[in-house]
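pls design
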């Protein structure tokens, strides 16, 4: 159907420093064909500078019947930036666009200028799960180029990067390379600059600009022959580089190109995935006007130890490849939507216009389908509503029945919570003896040679035995409610008998431990002695603490803080200090203490906390 047919034609326009190249591509059946390839060479036409070249371009396009054609114009690669980023697999288009926008802002750096960007999603390969090729260019560069071309009357429909255009031309001319997963180098050698691309498996992995142009050969040759650059440029096409003649000045220029290439390759390898970074290059493909220099491919192939080939679109008459037109061919393929890698740097308004034109046939088809489906959907929806009404009535009856059961379930949950809380004292108190025995066994396991412990207690019992601090008036605080028994052995929840709780006269009526406020046993304390040595005694204690922490019983072990030892430490050590004083022959020991926190507690109080009511529940109760 003609409504869905491919665009009729497109022209790729590559505007260089010394020449303007145009390639006219038209559809031929299901394939594409090159209808016309033309070059405006500044040296041959006697054009002196780039400004004069641009002013002559419009007349030249008219002479070749291309003035009113839709053009895709190339932007030099050194004016744009590319980057391959790997994003999480399965992200939606909107999320991917946001991620790419963030990466674009990172590529733009701290500059206040605005940037135009586009991206191309590639196949997951070479260690990347969702690789995306991002292209960025300053908006001022795009506006300047679009403004000039619009003033000149050129019908620009898209802007592309010359480097990616070369890659598209390469895959169009050599489709078998898409299946080759070995990395290869594409070199677009221009008059003032060179673009180096690393490709593999149909993907562009790197695009960089080299500070090298074919004009260097012209300058050296002009100096060697004693002629002007115009004559040297003509002689250069007849000259053939010899890899064996290293003393030739042109060989030194080629060595400079090799150095620039190796720097760019090293930059790519440093950021590439391991799957590709260490692989050798399969081939070097040369294109651009500078690639026509005889013997250059042989020199580079010898430098890098792989085959080097010159490629370009074939001439319709002679069949000879024309490497200078590769970028223009790739730009035309992008305009025909036949490019392997499509990254557009056109202004957003131009992109939207192109997209609307591309999607318009689908919009018409969608409207026709929608009208037919709408009629069928209305009929089906009528029957669906009838069935839905019956289903809702059944669910409403079930909900009414469930509403009567909810209060009973709430009562059962409250009772379960109450009984769980009542079990807390039994679980907490009953297991303290076992905790004490486990502590003794653990201390026996980790103690050092000749170390021994003279006091082991749970922290609650230890705190009970500590002397009460004096108040400001120097009187000990003996309030029985503050001295309630909390320890492991013989401690009770209440200090008074059950009959006293009912008596209003008993002052200890409130001396009770609430279940939710009941203190848990979280640590044990120990005091002991270790052999005294002048060097390393604290290291031995540190190793003892580490062995305790490596076990499963305690998660933390260390010395008891000084405020928690005051008053009770002297009571524990007094008798032993007298013993050492009376029997010095028993050895020289120094005291130490440990505060050991359990790794796990008997009761998880967080699990016993009642669930907080949701705001929706309160609203429902108010409505009722």
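designed seq:
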């Amino acid at each position: 159907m003609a409504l869905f047919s491919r665009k009729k034609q497109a022209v790729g326009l590559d505007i260089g420093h010394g020449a303007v190249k145009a390639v006219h591509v038209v559809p031929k059946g299901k394939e594409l064909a090159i209808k016309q390839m033309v070059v405006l060479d500044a040296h041959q036409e006697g054009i002196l500078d780039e400004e004069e070249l641009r002013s002559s371009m419009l007349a030249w396009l008219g002479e070749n019947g291309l003035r009113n054609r839709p053009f895709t114009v190339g932007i030099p690669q050194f004016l744009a930036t590319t980057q391959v980023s790997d994003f999480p697999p399965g992200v939606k288009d909107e999320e991917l666009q946001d991620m790419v926008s963030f990466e674009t802002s990172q590529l733009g750096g701290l500059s206040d200028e605005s940037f135009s960007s586009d991206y191309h999603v590639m196949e997951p390969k070479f260690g990347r799960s969702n690789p995306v090729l991002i292209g960025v260019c300053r908006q001022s560069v795009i506006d300047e180029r679009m403004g000039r071309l619009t003033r000149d009357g050129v019908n620009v429909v898209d802007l592309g990067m010359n480097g990616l255009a070369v890659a598209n031309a390469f895959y169009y001319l050599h489709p078998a390379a898409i299946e080759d997963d070995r990395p290869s180098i594409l070199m677009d050698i221009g008059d003032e600059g060179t673009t180096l691309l690393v490709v593999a498996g149909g993907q562009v992995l790197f695009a960089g600009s080299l500070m090298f142009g074919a004009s260097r050969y012209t300058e050296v040759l002009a100096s060697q022959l004693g002629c002007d650059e115009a004559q040297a440029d003509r002689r250069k096409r007849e000259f053939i580089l010899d890899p064996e003649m290293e003393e030739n000045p042109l060989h030194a220029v080629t060595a400079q190109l090799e150095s620039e290439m190796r720097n760019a390759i090293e930059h790519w390898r440093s950021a590439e995935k391991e799957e590709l970074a260490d692989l050798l290059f399969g081939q070097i493909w040369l294109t651009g006007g500078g690639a026509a220099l005889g013997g250059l491919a042989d020199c580079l192939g010898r430098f890098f130890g792989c085959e080097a080939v010159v490629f370009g679109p074939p001439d319709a008459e002679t069949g000879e490849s024309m490497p200078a037109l590769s970028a223009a061919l790739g730009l035309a393929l992008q305009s025909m939507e036949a490019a392997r890698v499509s990254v557009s740097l056109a202004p957003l308004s131009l992109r939207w216009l192109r997209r609307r034109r591309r999607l318009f046939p689908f919009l018409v088809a969608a409207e026709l389908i929608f009208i037919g489906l709408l009629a069928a959907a209305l009929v089906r929806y009528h029957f669906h509503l009838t069935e839905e009404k019956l289903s809702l009535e059944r669910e409403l009856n079930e909900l009414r029945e469930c509403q009567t059961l909810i209060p009973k379930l709430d009562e059962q949950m409250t009772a379960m919570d109450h009984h769980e809380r009542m079990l807390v004292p039994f679980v907490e108190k009953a297991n303290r003896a076992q905790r004490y025995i486990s502590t003794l066994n653990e201390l026996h396991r980790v103690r050092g040679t000749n170390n021994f412990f003279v006091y082991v207690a749970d922290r609650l019992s230890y705190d009970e035995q500590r002397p009460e601090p004096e108040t400001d008036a120097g009187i000990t605080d003996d309030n029985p409610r503050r001295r309630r028994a909390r320890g492991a052995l013989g401690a009770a929840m209440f200090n008074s008998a059950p009959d006293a709780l009912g008596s209003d006269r008993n002052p200890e009526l409130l001396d009770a431990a609430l279940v939710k406020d009941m203190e848990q046993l979280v640590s044990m304390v120990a005091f002991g002695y270790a052999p005294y040595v002048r060097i390393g005694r604290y290291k031995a204690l540190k190793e003892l603490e580490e062995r305790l922490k490596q076990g499963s019983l305690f998660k933390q072990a260390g010395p008891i803080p000084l405020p928690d030892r005051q008053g009770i430490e002297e009571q524990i050590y007094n008798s032993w200090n007298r013993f050492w004083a009376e029997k010095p022959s028993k050895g020289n020991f120094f005291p130490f203490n440990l505060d050991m926190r359990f790794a796990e507690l008997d009761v998880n109080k967080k699990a016993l906390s009642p669930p907080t009511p949701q705001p929706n529940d309160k609203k429902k109760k108010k409505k009722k």
